[in-house]
Amino acid sequence: MRVSEGSRVSNPAAVEDTATPRGAGRLSDRRGDDPPLHGATVAFIVERLREDILTGRAPPGWRLVEWELTSRFGVSRGPVREALRRLAAEGLIEHWPHRGAWVRRLSTREIRELFQIRVEMEALAARLAAGAEDPERRQRFAEAIRPILSDKPRSVPEYLMENAVFHEAVMTLAGNLQLRDLAMRLHLPLIMAQVGDILTPEVLGASVHEHRAVAKAIRDRDAGDAAALMRAHLERAAALALERRSAEADGSKEGAERLAALHKQ
């Protein structure tokens, strides 16, 4: 079966929740800050592609074409193939020999299950962070989350990066290495990158406000409030993400109206 450049296949035997990404074109054309870099290392390529995926610049289903990446990074195919192999091992892309690589598109079930895990893990992290005693760690937390205090307008990629930094800062302050390792291996920020089109200005504003409320509870050492606020924040995000997928699936007027109502909450 041939796969077009604007599509993806999650499994050679079965396709679920697939869609053609909007704004087709080379990724290098979409980013003016990515001139070819002579001799870029594999780690650098992985880092930049990971950032593209987690900020939504490379949307779900986007095809990663080897020759375009070799041109963008100024390397041969060897480093590009190794970078793609590592990203596939992380679960960020799907890489099929002799067929190509695509940015992973989570199914509705995967989004639901990952959010269920994320709510519990991050509520625990917020509780632990609020109880952290080390003044140096608390100071590093305050410095890391400084961007959430800005009132400047945010683009979706800017918000997604800020969101990832905020949740990572909470995990770091929590100080539970096993919990942080689990969160990193699950690539929880990937969930929001999958549904970036729900991030209207209203949704972005509400999310930033919720981040500030969680941060305040952590700074005030209110463990119960920090956990409850983090739980409410993520449950709201889950509802938006799942409603979006539901509206995509049925394409009905009722589905669109439900999504619009959620955006206003």
What does this 3D model show about the protein?
With 265 residues, the protein is mainly alpha-helical. It is globular and about 55 Å long. The longest helix is centred in the last third of the chain and has 28 residues, at 223-250. Strands 1-3-2 form a three-stranded antiparallel β-sheet. The chain has two domains: 27-103, Winged helix-like DNA-binding domain superfamily/Winged helix DNA-binding domain (Arc Repressor Mutant, subunit A); 108-264, Up-down Bundle (Four Helix Bundle (Hemerythrin (Met), subunit A)), CATH 1.20.120.530. 63% of the residues lie in helices and 4% in strands. The chain starts with 26 loop residues before the first helix and ends with a helix.
Tags for this entry?
single chain; mainly alpha; Arc Repressor Mutant, subunit A; Four Helix Bundle (Hemerythrin (Met), subunit A)
Could you provide a short overview of the structure?
Helices cover 63% and strands 4% of the residues.
Task: Write the SSE topology.
Blueprint (H helix, E strand, L loop, with lengths): L26 H4 L11 H13 L8 E2 L1 H8 L3 H14 L2 E4 L3 E4 L4 H23 L4 H10 L11 H19 L2 H10 L2 H6 L6 H19 L3 H28 L2 H12 L1
Helix pairs in contact: 2-4, 3-4, 5-7, 5-10, 5-11, 6-7, 7-10, 10-11, 11-12
